[in-house]
Automatic annotation (TrEMBL):
This is Phospholipid-transporting ATPase. One of its GO terms (biological process) is phospholipid translocation. Its cofactor is Mg(2+). Its EC number is 7.6.2.1. The chain crosses the membrane at residues 312-333, 371-391, 961-982, 1034-1052, 1064-1083, 1090-1112, 1132-1151. Mg(2+) binds at D439, T441, D895, D899. Residues 51-116 form the P-type ATPase N-terminal domain. It comes from Nepenthes gracilis.
Length: 1187
């Protein structure tokens, strides 16, 4: 019975609630006539799904089950337009566009041409609709291809091809080798007489290793004999849990359980099996694959949240300006109400020749005109709210992701995996990470297990290992030659090997025999054999070559243990649902498997009930030390001594960084076996709380065990992990490790990867009650004089502000005197040399009770935190502990399904493409092949992305505001009339064409420092922590600079042409070209890295602006006809533009120069050092040979 669950007792429920809120996925409906929602893991026995085998009519008569047609598309031809518009107008930005366009259609408010005002909205809607339509067309095409695939369905007495979409629940289907499963089916039989089938679940969970599925022997034998099956399957309602299936089958008066090992899910592929036959239980949208097709929870960057704050300020500016204009107009009208017929901007009558001559103008009175002026001002100043910024940011993030994906330095050749960007909303958060929460196994380590140590009957083995070839060469006469050739070589302990092959019947020999028999039998590993062995000439004699064998399993730990048992002569060579065959030193022994209790996170052990060839029955158990030692039998002094010695060996193995397991066994008598079988059959056929009942049944077996020994498996660190962690710590990032391993193992790995250092004071919290945990936390806080949460937050802010004081730069670079700031000795010791080590049992009490704040105070005062023996939801609880109490950005990185909750809880989730499948990758925002790539991702790409996006936002605020302020000054000089000197098209093109491309190019390509420099000086990453590229202070400085530039931009042309006779459209043409040149040169002043594309974008946009103005001024129907041609002939025009650029940018240039000379930032200092290095490399060496 396979039980896979991630439910952990004692974990705070609020963590689960937060994860459910973030996933934002609706629950599936069971069948169409039921309205209630179904829970994922609980099945109610009074409402089962009844599947009548090979009787689809009867099956679907009671309930209208879903058809097998799948649909992933969102639209149809009829619903596309209304649904697309409905979805798009969920965005506030589009509603703002719509409101502006509607206001402009009203006659009193028609500031722009009615067609022109619709252009921005129609452009955005059309582009988005075309993109969505194309994507949905591809989904339709994929759905048609999927639904029209064919499978063999049983019709009367033979199988006939039928399209997938026409398959119904209750029908019997036949799948051949390498075919894809069309729906969720319960196995009835396979081409293997034992009922075994191998499937690949790559399309479902991303795992490439083969999984084993079984047909019940009751049905497999009938299928093999060619008989027909008619029975009833009672199963749970559809849910998205792919690791659990609860059902019963009733066949010929007998009732037996079905589990996850008896079902094959839609999307899996049949491998190494000729054919399988099964009955359809879930179809179409109700299959587990379709129920799991929801996207990862949406996340939003912190910088975008700050940007909304500044957008609110811009909205206030907009309302203030509109209020000034409307109030000014009201006062103007009141003052000149008797002169309205003759004033240039307001009049009551038409005086132009024509049919309207002498008629009254559209004058609505002072009050309404004031109100209309307010609305008209909103239309004129609409781009003050930078709606286009959101679209620009999406394009920039897309370009940044393209270069991150293409970074060859983040390509992992061992797994052939490239960097993946699965979320485009949080690129800039990578440059502000404060906390990293990392899994250990498979994330910091390789998750490629190697058997290193064994403690058997109180004796330690494995200190000196020999290569397997040494034994194969016949150097030891007592050891027979192993006929099985493993995929990889395993070191052998000579003393242990001799013990296994001595002809002894002592306790030590029996314990060693049962020890390796447990390693070979207590697992779910499947042996894969190759073709018949070949003959080879060895030592002058013709000998049979070793038969190659490989082991497929879902756990690398199990594979390593089974391979180790094979190396010592205990080779698992056959497995079926009812028996296994183990080759013990050349003799094949068959063992009947009476029951299997798989490992789960509550029991933390696994057991198998085996009937030996002599008819004796034993329980073989392996598991975590704490869980196995707690169920050992009370023994003799000899047993207690072995237990004590074994515990010492376990501590020794853990200190070496090895993963440990304890092995035990127990004999079963007939009465105990019968009692267990009755309870097991009852629990395994239960449709309610099956996992709990099976767990309780396992407790009948897993007690009074006899200790056999322990194992130590090495999981080596990945390449570059210590260097990456050291660099991340230098960058001011705290790395916390959350692992399920023993405390000693975690500490050893922490030392190996340079997370823990010799000078650190280790604070260990191992509490077994709430009071004990409270006392341990209080003692640690008082011993190291740690402060409360409020003081800790102030201390954190102080550290953020002073992080830049520790940057080292080359001697030949420009330096600046800094006064170092030192805190007290106690604070310095607490922040620099403390390491907190806490276990999962303590976290149960701390996270559930009111001790969270005390843990937070202690943990944030430590440089390193190691959490051992933690459950998956406890990992998420630790992440939430930091997220809910600080504004710091968190990152979680892991490689397995147990890391999914942590990854989804963190601000940034990173998945590792490792040995444990791709569940973590599919739930992550970014994915990579190795932990060491995290260094480059954060220190290089994170730094670049944050610098670019931060500047991009401020520049867009400036670009739009300078244009709006210029219009505002003009309106103040035209009697508050909202009259525009610019053409409608120039106003629309300003953000769309004239200035958009340089912004996007700079946001994608600009680099303040090279990647080598950023990696060389990790402390430069602190610029993101200090928010140097984007903060409220920079926003107000930018607004002041914008105000100055807009005044220069408006009044210089006004004074230059005050004595001339040019019209308003000529001035508008001058202002248009001047503002475009100004904002582009402003951008050019800040660009750090010039490439061909950057030059083309910046200077090309100015050329394009001139080209557009030439075209618009050449159209006779426009009021600005031929203005550019007259202006361009005058030297005053060009001198005015030049004077505007100089005067507008001069204060900014001087301020930057003074600031960089007197108060240079770390980045500026290193940039100068980098420039000096480049210059020295370019200069020829006078001592170098000219040849």
């Amino acid at each position: 019975m396979e039980q896979r669950t991630f439910e952990i007792s004692g974990t705070p429920s609020q963590v689960q609630e937060k994860l459910r809120e973030r996933s934002n996925v609706s629950q599936p409906q069971g069948h169409w006539h039921k309205s209630g929602q179904l829970e994922d893991n609980i099945f109610r026995e009074q409402n089962p799904r009844l599947i009548y085998i090979d009787d689809p009519r009867r099956t679907n008569d009671t309930y209208e089950f879903a058809s097998n047609e799948v649909r992933t598309s969102k639209y149809t031809l009829i619903t596309f337009l209304p649904k697309s518009l409905f979805i798009q107008f969920h965005r506030v930005a589009y509603l703002y566009f719509l409101a502006i366009a509607v206001l402009n259609q009203l006659p009193p408010l028609a500031v722009f041409g009615r067609t022109v005002s619709l252009f921005p909205l129609l452009f955005v809607l059309s582009v988005t609709a075309v993109k969505d339509g194309y994507e949905d067309w591809r989904r339709h095409r994929s759905d048609r291809k999927e639904n029209n695939r064919e499978a063999l369905v049983l019709q009367s007495v033979c199988f006939e091809l039928r399209k997938w979409k026409n398959i119904r629940a209750g029908e019997v289907v036949k799948i051949c080798a390498d075919e894809t499963i069309p729906c969720d089916i319960v196995l009835l039989g396979t081409s293997d007489h034992s009922g075994i089938a191998y499937v690949q679940t790559m399309n479902l969970d991303g795992e490439s290793n083969l999984k084993t599925r079984y047909a019940r022997q009751e049905t497999a034998s009938v299928v093999v004999d060619g008989g027909s099956i008619s029975g009833l399957v009672r199963c749970e309602q559809p849910n998205r849990n792919i690791y659990e299936f609860t059902a019963n089958m009733e066949l010929r008066g007998h009732k037996f359980p079905l589990s996850q090992s008896n079902i094959i899910l839609r999307g899996c592929q049949l491998k190494n099996t000729d054919w399988v036959i099964g009955v359809v239980v879930y179809t179409g949208q109700e299959t587990k694959a379709m129920l799991n097709s929801a996207a990862s929870p949406a996340k939003r960057s912190k910088l975008e949240g700050y940007m909304n704050r500044e957008t609110l300020w811009l909205s206030i500016f907009l309302l203030v300006m509109c209020s000034i204009v409307s109030l000014g107009m009201g006062l103007w009208l009141e003052r000149h109400k008797k002169q309205l017929d003759t004033l240039p901007y307001y009049r009551k009558r038409y005086y132009t020749e024509g049919r309207k001559y002498g008629k009254r103008y559209k004058y609505y009175g002072i009050a309404m005109e004031t109100f209309f002026s307010f609305l008209s001002s909103i239309i004129v100043f609409q781009i003050m709210i930078p709606i286009s910024l959101y679209i620009t940011m999406e394009l920039v993030r897309l370009g940044q992701s393209y270069f991150m994906i293409g970074d060859k330095h983040m390509y992992d050749s061992s797994t052939n995996s490239r960097f993946q960007c699965r979320s485009l909303n949080i690129n800039e958060d990578l440059g502000q990470i404060r906390y990293i929460f990392s899994d250990k196994t498979g994330t910091l380590t390789q998750n490629k297990m190697e058997f290193r140590r064994a403690s058997v009957f109180g004796k330690n083995h494995g200190a000196s290992l020999l290569a397997a070839e040494y034994l194969q060469d016949g150097n030891i006469a007592e050891v027979p030659r192993n006929r099985w050739k493993l995929k990889s070589e395993i070191g052998i302990d000579l003393e242990l090997m001799e013990l296994l092959h001595k002809d002894l019947n002592g306790e030590e020999r029996i314990a060693a025999h049962e020890f390796f028999l447990t390693l070979a039998a207590c697992n779910t590993v499947i042996p894969i054999l190759t073709e018949s062995p070949r003959c080879a000439l060895l030592g002058g004699d013709l000998q049979e070559d070793n038969e190659a064998i490989d082991f497929q399993g879902e756990s690398p730990d199990e594979q390593a243990l089974v391979a180790a048992a094979s190396a010592y002569g205990y080779t698992l060579c056959e497995r079926t649902s009812g028996h296994i065959v183990v080759d013990v030193n050349g003799e094949k022994l068959r063992f009947d498997v009476l029951g299997l209790h798989e490992f789960d996170s509550v029991r933390k052990r696994m057991s198998v009930v085996i009937r030996f060839p002599d008819n004796s029955v034993k329980v073989l158990v392996k598991g975590a030390d704490t869980s196995v030692f707690s169920v050992l039998a009370e023994g003799t002094e000899r047993d207690d001594y072995i237990k004590m010695v074994t515990q010492g060996h376990l501590t020794q193995y853990s200190s070496l960084g090895l993963r440990t397991l304890v092995v035990a066994a127990r004999n079963l008598n007939d009465a105990e076996l019968e009692e267990w079988q009755c309870r097991y059959e009852e629990a395994s056929t239960s449709l309610t709380d099956r996992s709990t009942k099976v767990r309780q049944t396992a407790a009948l077996l897993e007690c009074n065990l006899r200790l056999l020994g322990a194992t130590g498996i090495e999981d080596k660190l990945q390449d570059g992990v210590p260097e990456a962690i050291e660099s991340l710590r230098q960058a001011g990032i705290k790395v916390w490790v959350l692992t399920g391993d023993k405390q000693e193992t975690a500490i050893s790995i922490g030392i190996s990867c340079k997370l823990l250092t010799a000078d650190m004071h280790q604070i260990i919290i191992n509490g077994n009650s709430e009071d004990e945990c409270r006392n341990l936390l209080s003692e640690a806080r008082s011993k190291y004089c740690l402060r409360s949460s409020r003081c800790s937050e102030q201390n954190l802010k102080w550290k953020k502000n002073t992080a830049k004081d520790y940057l080292e730069v080359p001697d030949n670079s420009k330096s600046v005197n800094r006064t170092p700031r030192n805190s007290g000795e106690e604070e310095g010791m607490a922040s620099a040399s403390l390491a907190l080590i806490i276990d999962g049992n303590s976290l149960v009490y701390i996270l559930e009770k009111d001790l969270e704040s005390e843990l937070f105070d202690l943990a944030t005062s430590c440089r390193v935190v190691l959490c051992c023996r933690v459950a998956p939801l406890q990992k998420a609880g630790i992440v939430d502990l930091i997220k809910s109490r600080t504004d710091d950005i968190t990152l979680a990185i892991g490689d397995g399904a147990n890391d999914v909750s942590m990854i989804q809880m963190a601000d940034v989730g990173v998945g590792i493409c490792g040995q444990e499948g791709r569940q973590a990758v599919m739930a992550s925002d970014f994915a990579m092949g190795q932990f060491r790539f995290l260094k480059r991702l954060l220190l290089v790409h994170g730094h670049w992305n944050y610098q670019r996006i931060g500047y991009l936002v401020l520049y867009n605020f400036y670009r739009n505001a300078v244009f709006v302020f210029m219009l505002f000054w003009f309106i103040l000089c035209t009697a508050f009339s909202t009259t525009s000197a610019l053409t409608d098209w120039s106003s629309v093109f300003y953000s769309v064409i004239y200035t958009s491309v340089p912004t996007i190019v700079a946001g994608i390509l600009d680099k303040d420092l090279s990647h080598l420099t950023l990696l060389q000086y990790p402390k430069l990453y602190g610029a993101g922590h200090r928010q140097e590229s984007y903060n409220l202070h920079l926003f107000w400085i930018t607004m002041l600079d914008t105000l100055w530039q807009s005044l220069v931009l408006f009044y210089i042309p006004l004074f230059a042409y005050r004595e001339s006779s040019i019209d308003i459209w000529s001035l508008g043409s001058l202002w248009t070209i001047a503002v475009v040149i100004l904002v582009n040169i402003h951008l050019a002043m800040d660009i750090q890295r010039w490439v061909i594309v950057t030059h083309a974008a910046v200077w090309g946009s100015i050329i394009i602006t001139y080209g557009c103005m030439v075209v618009l001024d050449s159209i006779p129907m426009f009021p600005n006809y031929w203005t550019i041609y007259h202006l361009a002939k005058s030297p005053t025009y060009w001198l005015t533009v030049l004077l505007i650029i100089i005067l507008a940018l001069l204060p900014r240039f001087l301020a930057k120069a003074v600031y960089q000379i007197l108060w240079p930032s770390d980045i500026q200092i290193v940039r100068e050092a980098e420039a000096l290095r480049k210059r020295s490399n370019l200069e020829p060496n006078p001592h170098q040979d000219s040849s």
